[in-house]
Design brief:
It is built from 19 helices and twelve strands. It is α+β, with helices and mostly antiparallel strands.
């Protein structure tokens, strides 16, 4: 057969292709490929054929128009070892069924209650901080969003478990670069220290979540939280059955990761950007003072806090919590005039597209005002929550949580980056700050 014509891309060394360059610095590598080769490029990661898609019209084909042509990428499939078959990893009819079962938990009436819980917990956190204190905002936002997801999902105070949960999450996410290695399924069976820590971390999270499920099964109380809705859900459009404890666990751990880890990272990057742009921070404070007049925000304030929403949107443009989205072709298909063979991996990267000079004026500049002045963009020039049938089910929850938490915290506090603290994004499953984010707290109402 004649060789398959492929899109342009970097020359692939024999055996490992671009694996070393990608593993060394994925963000720099993918950004460099997009800058040099444009909206569609080809390279190899080990034996895997990879197509980097950075053109918004082609991204729409992958995520929306030709979605049935793909499964999740093999890299994310390996995350099943700790996520199970939740919404993030489930495929086909199973994904559609689980989405139907989970969707009611994010209806408007429930969001109103979640909003009240979010603000109450954020107010508790901000009231225990001290002017002049130095804090790792990354870790504090993790604790805050953990407390919120514990309350909204489980009606439980999990703050006492915050340290244990945080360490377990760090261990699991820190294993992701190893999990995606070729033959990692065999590596996971070896008694290596990091493998032992990984299994222990997974057992810790399972123990907490299965314990909450077991206790809930024994109770007659209706909590109205996410866990209750998952356990009570019935697939009326399908076979009428509900979820097993294993299915509830898989959805709970997926929502736990999505509602805790990603929001904490988005908030951390927002505080960092505000600390570097005092003129933007001043506008945030002005909007808070005008809209809230000293009271705590409520659900009804969410659509009124327009500038804060723009700040959050711009923060997620520069530092999208989910920095890459992958698919794998089930069959050969055509893309931009090229034949993409079955089993090829298609990567799209919100981080790369959001920072592309081809789509964004002053692409590297933090400018929340662009959201009210720039228009006529293709919708897939900005996709921090994915798109198509697999659009993040908690998108509205996340927007509301981010805006309300920023308003609650910034009402009383501003944060200043500790001089000399290194800032470098770490691309694991989510985009974390590699060195944390050490900042000094300044009360808005305490004279300096």
């Amino acid at each position: 057969m004649p060789p398959i014509e492929r899109p342009p891309g970097p020359k692939n060394p024999l055996l490992f292709g671009q694996f070393a360059a990608f593993r060394s610095n994925p963000l720099r590598f993918l950004s460099g490929v997009e800058q040099q080769y444009g909206g569609l490029a080809y390279f190899k990661l080990g034996p895997q054929h990879v197509y980097l898609v950075s053109d918004p019209k082609l991204i729409e084909q992958i995520l929306v128009l030709k979605n049935p042509t793909f499964t999740k990428s093999p890299f994310l499939k390996k995350a099943r070892t700790f996520l199970g078959d939740g919404l993030l990893t489930a495929e086909g009819q199973q994904h559609l069924r689980q989405r139907r079962l989970v969707q009611p938990a994010f209806h408007r009436d429930h969001l109103v209650r979640y909003a009240s819980q979010m603000v109450t917990i954020a107010d508790k956190f901000r009231n225990r901080w001290h002017h002049g204190a130095e804090m790792d905002i990354d870790q504090e936002m993790m604790r805050l969003t953990l407390a919120i997801i514990g309350q909204t999902m489980f009606s439980a105070d999990v703050e006492a478990d915050a340290k244990e949960v945080g360490e377990s999450m760090n261990t699991i996410l820190g294993m992701f670069p190893t999990i995606i290695l070729p033959f990692s399924e065999y590596l996971e069976k070896l008694p290596l220290p990091m493998i032992i820590r990984y299994h222990k971390a997974r057992e810790t999270l399972d123990g907490i979540i299965f314990g909450l499920i077991e206790n809930r099964r024994k109770e007659a109380t209706q909590y109205g939280d996410l866990l209750s809705m998952l356990m009570a859900a019935r697939d009326h459009e399908g076979d009428g059955t509900g979820m097993t404890d294993k299915q509830v666990r898989d959805e709970a751990i997926t929502l736990f990761l999505a509602g805790h880890e990603t929001t904490a990272n988005a908030l951390t990057w927002t505080w960092y950007l505000l600390s570097q742009h005092p003129e933007v921070e001043a506008k945030v404070h002005a909007e808070i003072d005008e809209v809230l007049s000293g009271r705590l925000p409520q659900f009804e304030d969410f659509p009124r806090l327009k500038y804060i929403e723009s700040v959050m949107a711009e923060s997620m443009r520069l530092y999208p919590p989910v920095w890459t989205i992958g698919r794998q072709a089930k069959t050969d298909f055509e893309l931009a005039g090229y034949t993409v063979p079955a089993k090829s991996v298609i990567l799209t990267s919100p981080y790369v597209v959001h920072r592309s000079k081809r789509f964004w004026p002053r692409a590297e500049q933090f400018d929340p005002d662009r959201w009210s002045t720039e228009s006529h963009r293709h919708k897939f020039t900005y996709f921090p929550f994915g798109g198509g049938p697999r659009l993040c089910i908690g998108e509205r929850f996340a927007w509301m949580e981010g805006v309300l938490l920023i308003a609650t915290i910034a009402q009383s506090w501003r944060f200043k980056l500790v001089p000399g603290h290194p800032v470098d994004p770490l691309p694991l499953i989510t985009l974390r700050p590699r060195h944390g984010m050490k900042m000094t707290l300044e009360s808005r109402f305490t004279p300096v």
